[in-house]
Amino acid sequence: MTYNGDMTISSRNNVIRAGIVIAAGLSVLTVLAASRALSWMPEAVSRAAARTPGLFPALAARFFPPAPWAPAVSMAASLLFAMGGLILILYYFEKTAASELIFVVFFVFSLALESARIMIPLMRAWNLPGVFGVMAARALLFARSAGLFSLFAAGICAAGLDARRQANIILVIVLAGLVIALNMPLDSLSWDTSLCLQSGYNSMILIIEISAGVTGALSFVVSAHSRGSREFVTAGAGAFLAFVGRSILLRSDTWVTPLPGLLLLAAGAWLLCGQLHRVYLWL
Closest Cα partner for 236 from 250, 247, 222? Predict the structure, then answer.
């Protein structure tokens, strides 16, 4: 089959390989930094100005106090998911064309940037100025925004968006992520219990995340009707599970949330990619 988008299968696979290498490099750097940062992790969590925002963290906060190592578990799980997910996508889709896949790849890769949260305890361990924390927080904001916009783009691409405009869509995702990351006011001296710097626009960020995640998932369901393929309904359910699991995992500050979040994220990504593979394998 000839891939009719801007990106050939070969170039898409090269992007995935580059993502694997970057995720592996970030994992090594995080492990090296952790040797100094982990001893300061409990203090960083105890000095947090507020609990992490969001519906699921708010429910967990009613029953469980912040766990000093929960952010470390969340970061490690995110890195492992990103690297393992990209390897599996490359293995199963190496010779399969799927116009939505490149956006799923970006969504999965974005979780590798969760390692930026280690900068909060690292600033104390190395006595670094607050600007390093702000830079790491902006990188994290960009990754989270671009990752969710990528999931949204995968949904609207499945619903009928011209796949030949992939390069333009990717550019829009990057620009939108940069606009949010560079313009969001951040307090370099105040963070929440998931080790994210606080912002005055937490509610707006949550609204954007929920809108992008839910709309992206629903777009897959719409594509089931427009393209006459019931597999897209399951793909939409997978996208929604991945969105929910991601939200729980990234904002985990108790012992009870990282594992359910990771399991939902992994199950959702597996359903989404599995259904896309079924749709495109026989085309």
Answer: 222
Instruction: Note the pTM of the prediction, 2 decimals.
Output: 0.92
- 104: nearest Cα among 3, 216, 225, 211: 216
Tell me which DSSP letter residue 53 carries.
P
**Cα 260 to chain centroid, rounded:** 16
Instruction: Give the pair of three-digit tokens for residue 61.
Output: 């906060």
Alpha carbon distance 13, 64 (integer Å): 43
Q: Which helix (H) or strand (E) holds 35?
A: helix 9-37
**Residue pair 190/47 in contact by the 8 Å Cβ criterion:** no
Q: Which whole-number Å values give the CA distances from 127 to 44, 124, 131, 187, 191, in the listed order? A: 13, 5, 12, 17, 17
Integer Cα distance of 237 and 217 in angstroms: 7
CB 41 within 8 A of CB 72: yes
Neighbours of 77 (CB within 10 A): 21
Q: How far is residue 271's CA from residue 126's CA, in Å, rounded to a whole number?
A: 42
Tokens at 150, concatenated: 């990528």
CA nearest to 30, candidates 96, 117, 102, 90: 117
Per-position pLDDT tens, the chain of length 283 = 344 445 788 999 999 999 999 999 999 999 999 988 988 999 999 999 989 988 888 888 888 999 999 999 999 999 999 999 999 999 999 988 888 899 999 999 999 999 999 999 999 888 889 899 999 999 999 999 999 999 999 998 887 766 567 788 899 999 999 999 999 999 888 999 999 998 878 888 888 888 999 999 999 888 887 777 788 899 999 999 999 999 999 999 999 999 999 999 999 999 999 999 988 876 4
In 3D space, the residue among 114, 88, 94 whose CA is nearest the CA of residue 20 turns out to be: 88
